[in-house]
Amino acid sequence: xxxxxxxxxxxxxxxxxxxxxxxxxxxxxxxxxxxxxxxxxxxxxxxxxxxxxxxxxxxxxxxxxxxxxxxxxxxxxxxxxxxxxxxxxxxxxxxxxxxxxxxxxxxxxxxxxxxxxxxxxxxxxxxxxxxxxxxxxxxxxxxxxxxxxxxxxxxxxxxxxxxxxxxxxxxxxxxxxxxxxxxxxxxxxxxxxxxxxxxxxxxxxxxxxxxxxxxxxxxxxxxxxxxxxxxxxxxxxxxxxxxxxxxxxxxxxxxxxxxxxxxxxxxxxxxxxxxxxxxxxxxxxxxxxxxxxxxxxxxxxxxxxxxxxxxxxxxxxxxxxxxxxxxxxxxxxxxxxxxxxxxxxxxxxxxxxxxxxxxxxxxxxxxxxxxxxxxxxxxxxxxxxxxxxxxxxxxxxxxxxxxxxxxxxxxxxxxxxxxxxxxxxxxxxxxxxxxxxxxxxxxxxxxxxx
Amino acid sequence: xxxxxxxxxxxxxxxxxxxxxxxxxxxxxxxxxxxxxxxxxxxxxxxxxxxxxxxxxxxxxxxxxxxxxxxxxxxxxxxxxxxxxxxxxxxxxxxxxxxxxxxxxxxxxxxxxxxxxxxxxxxxxxxxxxxxxxxxxxxxxxxxxxxxxxxxxxxxxxxxxxxxxxxxxxxxxxxxxxxxxxxxxxxxxxxxxxxxxxxxxxxxxxxxxxxxxxxxxxxxxxxxxxxxxxxxxxxxxxxxxxxxxxxxxxxxxxxxxxxxxxxxxxxxxxxxxxxxxxxxxxxxxxxxxxxxxxxxxxxxxxxxxxxxxxxxxxxxxxxxxxxxxxxxxxxxxxxxxxxxxxxxxxxxxxxxxxxxxxxxxxxxx
Lengths: 450, 365
Known about the structure:
The complex is a heterodimer of chains A (450) and B (365). Chain A is an alpha/beta fold. Chain A has 17 helices and 18 strands.
């Protein structure tokens, strides 16, 4: 009875707490002053460069003896380092990167090993043990080769067998140590999707993941380990920023957004590439019209080429606004859901006028900003980037469709990846023209009928 | 999940094989005796305890005569067997065969444990210096009887084996952890050192040289029931205890980190396995000398047949090891001139092992 009550009392406590933990191998300190708590049912990714201590932290969370832990790690209220191997393996299971298995145990025997901490030395397995093993085999789709030898199946299948073993262990916390490192892309996704499904059932998962994009895509929360401690901790969008990654990985990165999943993408660039890229559009100025993921990606790509950028009008709570703050980019914002004021429209048109190139990136047209598009100077150098059809971005009626079509006819079309090339082409094409024709440019009012 | 049926079937089959091998072996020799007579004579040797009695030590003359309580036995059967046949089978051949079976049983079981423990196909029961330690003790007792305070050859070998294993373990342990790689290397180094000691003692052993060399080659001649009484309890109890850890041994095959994450107290389990396997090996080697290859080849052979699961591998290896050593000892003594059994096991075991190796049957534990 009292145990029952205890469980209920603790149901809302974090499952894992890490308080002022230092991890060290002999005299070599790997991590210092690490503190965090993990809620039940969450999927947390541990990211960071090689040697940052991801795997060490996984071992410490599992209650291992190496590295040495000072500070306190608890799982379900129990201090892990004080528990026996048997007790800790009832709380935490680990899916290793790969296993030393090189002998011909049938898959089912390996999965049964997950029940080891629950069984007494002399009694035969209970029907519970049997049922959990069967369920784990089915859930991981390993049942169909349960009787085959572990050394006859593929790497992806082995990974699933190790996953099944951890499932059979039936612990509240599951740790994945680089679960995708040796897998093909399809198996990587399969593995992480299985993990995510498990968290939906209330299990808590902590995964050390090498691949930042996969981590961002599947985890609710990322903990960035670097320089001997926790560098950043929070939602993927707030952790994966170019400055944080540059600091952690000592590499220049470009953080974009995946057009399909909407989650952050990270591209590392070498210093040479970065410099070449950085000087491509230096002393050019570009204005970006467009909010949302598409706008943010385009803005980021252009901003990393050294161009002077501005963006707007965008809502003050948009991702573009957030992204613009991490870039040297001017941002013209409105309050969320507010129409574009006359003053803002004029400010945007002025930026467009002064810019070498205007990029219209997946722009959403509403009654509130329709006028802006109508007033754009047709003579300006324009690049248009579209990843979603206009019909889904148009909330201003058929009139707007007409306006948009005329913009598209005049503009250079580009993909998000090719936007920098397109801007560069416009600049070269316009280099003579822009000086010659600048005086001829008519005020925007004269180009539209309204 | 767990198939006791398969384990029992294999064990029963191998026990039947052992009985058959024992009967054939007891029938062969300078005097041929027919198998039926052999079986009856063997049954006549069966005794059951009927009460307690006081005994006086003879095996270990530590303090002259030490009285201790023991069980009184009475024979079960009284078949009519010619007296000479009964004597040959009961007093000459059977003790030797029983000792061979006991030693083979223990060595093969210990070899299975060591190969799993070290995750190394080349591991055998004496990998941490047990046999070399026993040899050092035995050679010391043979070459310099005066230097060994308690003259018993078996006890000297047994103590030498245990001391060596303990020393290797102590050297390899640091901060409560005993990495198997360090254990292996410490074993190699200590064996090399003891090898030097043994060579030195052999050089100065004078007329006892032949006895010492024969002991080191492994021998079962002149065995008696006292030797069996000494070695059998260690083998049976030891293998029984090891059988309780077969599931842990399976999990340990995954490596120590994974085993620990699956609830195995790795250091404690390693210590327990090492202590039991060492005592079983030491007891066998103390009475039979250094018999190589049984503990190496038999586990590999059985692994090919029954698979790597220790729950079935351990009992089947032990039983197969018993048959194997009885068989090789029969060959050793049935030839025109008796040779030490260690020569036969190595002469048969090494080519067989090479055959498995060439067929790529043996590549990992």
